Amino acid sequence: MATSGDFSWPPAGTSTGHQWILSHGHGQSIALWANSSHEERANISELANFLDLHQDVPLVTWNGNSADIPKLRKVAQDHGLSDTLRIDSRLHVDLYLWVKRNIRLPIPDLSIKAVGEYFGFPRVSAGMDGLQAVGLYLEYCASHDQRIKDRLCDYNRDDVDSLIHVSTKLQELSSRLDHG
What domains, with CATH codes, occur in the chain? Predict the structure, then answer.
């Protein structure tokens, strides 16, 4: 069992200060969205509480070592919450790096979407990729249209659910290999 998270950040160069975070773990989930620095601070605290409740299991991300963890560390530091979040003391598994180093899949890239689809994960937000999500996010920043926000949440929820699905499939595969 693990806590899986997908953390999405505003595109570089945007001055909105918005971010959104989705996280799953132990059958529980939280969805956090911040439209202001105040909400961002509250979300970091809520994320820290959620992770503290599940401190006995690793935090699993997809490419989190180069993207999510450094950004979480910086946001927590900017809000004076580094001691609250304690991201550096958590057991963290970057499943993307594990896959990249340990298995070969017959697919052209190792995005969570591609790997999830390879392992049979059915996405709700089919037809959207990361670049389209960035464009949609910018559209949301201009309009604050709830329908756009809902589409973005579906996209991120798919990433989290796909991460959980891929993690489960890799554990099953590893178990089969271990037992002949």
Answer: 3-178 (3.30.420.10)
